[in-house]
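User:
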Amino acid sequence: MAQPRIARVYGAVNVGSFRISAMVAGISETGEMIEPEATIALPVLGPISVIAVFERIPMYELRITVAGGNGSVSPEHRRGQVYPDGTVIDLVASPASGYIVDQWQGTDDDTLWTNANQVTVDGNKEVIVSFRQPKSLHVPGQYRSIHEAVNAASDHGDKIVVGAGIHRVNSIDFQGKAITVASEHPDDPNCVATTILDAAQLGRVFVFQSGEGADSVVDGFTIRNGSAVFDPCTPNSSGCNGAPGEDALGGALACFNGSSPTLSNLIIANCVAQGRNGDAARRRLAPGLEPVAGIRHEKALARGDEAPGRTSGEAGQVADVRKARDQQRLQPLFPHRGAEECKAVRIRHAGAP
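Assistant: Predicted structure:
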């Protein structure tokens, strides 16, 4: 039997205001659907019919406007412009002097605050762009701390200007904001040396953990006495159950979750990254057997003996306290017995083999 010949069938192309809706290849009495604009190889065993189905391309209106003035956008379609379905339009905003893009609405990515954006016309759409003036927030002139200024800053474009001096701060979190925190003259070495962010070993100075990018800027500081973990030699309390230690990542600052800020003109001094010790598991006392606070020298005064430097009266007082402690321990175990009976129980228990 002869091998069938192979022929290639190419998808048809859009024509004018029409586009391919479907293609059908008929082989004998069967038919096979082909994706529009696809290429397919068919075995030629006999007559083959290929049908291309076209449809009229829908047309949609796009309006592009500026809210509040203070800039322009291109193209500007305030009265609307009709485009074929699927058309991608490049948008370019031009803020007035001293202004930045505040917000895009109706675009393919409304989270952007860049001057460039795009919109795909797949329905009737309206794009709105607004502009605003970025703020300068001064510490300590307007705000008492960098933390307060970061909280008050907008999501992007604002600048926090920190005056010279020693600022006791730690764990400054940009919260995902594209803002700048800078000294008054970040390019001046003297200003950098005298604008000091001191964490006093209470933690690192900056933490970036919300995917901050290059528009999040720290510029022109001396960062000192940072610690990746506060008091690393003291384990976190685990309630006697034991707990693992804690990793130390970045004594001056640390970046998590893909954050990659811009850091410039920084002096970093005396910052450490020492991990926290783990907490050991410990045996708990049964209820009612908790130590009585204030009892010391129990071994030396187990029977009320005089310890060096104590009078017989003081030794007797310690023995009385020990007696009360023993009764407190045994009473919950024998709730129906009196104090003397509890004492007897203790003596018998102590003398048991």
